[in-house]
Amino acid sequence: MLMSSLMFGLGGAEIAVILVVVIVLFGGKKIPELMKGIGQGIKEFNNAKANIESEVKQNIREIEKN
Question: In whole angstroms, what is the distance from residue 39 CA to residue 24 CA?
Answer without folding.
Answer: 21
